[in-house]
Amino acid sequence: MSANDLPRAGQQPNPNPTAADAVKDSAFLRACRREPVPHTPVWFMRQAGRSLPEYRKVREGTTMLDSCMRPDLVTEITLQPVRRHNVDAAIYFSDIVVPLKAIGIDLDIKPGVGPVVERPIRSRADLAQLRDLTPQDVSYVTEAIGMLTGELGATPLIGFAGAPFTLASYLVEGGPSRNHEHTKALMYGDPQLWADLLDRLSDITAAFLKVQIEAGASAVQLFDSWVGALSPADYRRSVMPASRKVFEAVSGYGVPRIHFGVGTGELLGLLGEAGADVVGVDWRVPLDEAARRVGPGKALQGNLDPAVLFSTQDAVEAKTDEVLAAADGLEGHVFNLGHGVLPTTDPDALTRLVEYVHTRTAR
After folding, report:
1. Which residue is catalytic, options 50, 70, 293, 360?
2. Among 21, 70, 95, 352, which one carries the catalytic annotation?
């Protein structure tokens, strides 16, 4: 079954589920498939990370990239927010540059900076750095997901990867960029080289997602963190073919495919058109308006402003009610933040938010 054939409303939960049935009938996967749910499911981008003291403790003395390559650490870190917050899905702990590191790109994640690439890709000769990704390159992913699915029980695991444009922006700029000067210069100045770069990255990304799905991930999310820097015309012409190729490559597995980018209010319809079953929405666009832009046949994910969690509980609940009201009547809704959990967020605020959404939306 392809993801485009994911079943819709009408199917009721299995009263005597096996472990696999329980995952399939989970609120999260049902919402992704636009089926009835017992409550609106909740998970958070960056739910595993610096906001949790147990994360900081277990990461002591271990670099980010090394943490992503140790199945024991990946398993523990992925499970931490599930234990603490009672979220409806786990997301595999990794980083978007892991597949690039796995194929030999000389890069590091520098604290306070982000991914830094030693030899940026700005010429056709530089493309030679990008070889195919094989399952053996990321065997630790297969091992970690096997451990996780054994521990998670009925809780689904979301696999994830960085989208070709965002990976390209790091590779071309050499690191994080505010204006993406080198990236856009290449995209506009040498469109064939740009297309070849994104096509190669789409193959690497698809291979990385396939490893996760075949190991047991129940859904996947493609993060296009920086694509909001583009106009709709540039996205459609220069980026969407590569993202579509990724989604098509994993369509045969029948798992929901989520697409998310920051500052993508003008791109929401195109993010769905690229092949997503679920479109992630940041906090800038209300979900009812996002649904209008995306069109029918897609679930939506989002979209509480992460900064709201620094306010009072009354304010958090009021803003959460606004999100839920805007989501009323959607074909499917997964509650999330409009971007990742901020590092200094009080973990208890997240726990209270999950409980509030569950209680407020109980059917």
Report:
1. 50
2. 95
Tell me whether residue 46 is one of the annotated catalytic residues: yes
Q: Is 43 helix (H, G, I), strand (E, B) or coil?
A: coil
Can you read off the two tokens belonging to residue 318? 């009021």
Q: Around 347, how many Cα atoms within 13 Å sit in the side-chain half-sphere?
A: 19
Strand, coil or helix: 128: helix
Q: Is residue 138 within 8 Å of 102, Cβ to Cβ?
A: yes
The H or E element containing residue 200 is helix 191-215
Q: Other C-beta atoms within 10 Å of 60: how many? A: 6
Determine the 3-state secondary structure of 339 from DSSP.
Answer: coil
- Catalytic residue, from 33, 46, 84, 200: name it: 46
pLDDT digits (tens), the chain, 363 positions: 343 444 333 344 444 457 889 999 999 999 999 999 999 999 999 999 999 999 999 999 999 999 999 999 999 999 999 999 999 999 999 999 999 999 999 999 998 899 999 999 999 999 999 999 999 999 999 999 999 999 999 999 999 999 999 999 999 999 999 999 999 999 999 999 999 999 999 999 999 999 999 999 999 999 999 999 999 999 999 999 999 999 999 999 999 999 999 999 999 999 999 999 999 999 999 999 999 999 999 999 999 999 999 999 999 999 999 999 999 999 999 999 999 999 999 999 999 999 999 999 999
Tokens, residue 296 = 């029918």
Neighbouring-strand partners of residue 162: 223
199 is a catalytic site residue: no
Q: Output DSSP code: residue 306.
A: G
| No. of helices (H) and no. of strands (E), the chain | 16, 9
Among 59, 122, 200, 257, the active-site one is 59
Q: Which residues of 6-21 are buried (b: 16+ CB within 10 A; e: fewer)?
A: beeeeeebeeeeeeee
Which amino acid, residue 338? G
Residue 25 appears among annotated catalytic residues: no
Catalytic residue, candidates 170, 235, 253, 356: 170
How far out from the chain centre does Cα 275 lie?
Answer: 14
The question of whether 95 is a catalytic residue gets the answer: yes
Whether the ω angle into residue 14 lies within 30 degrees of 0, i.e. cis, is no
Measured CA to CA, the distance from residue 106 to residue 111 in angstroms comes to 16
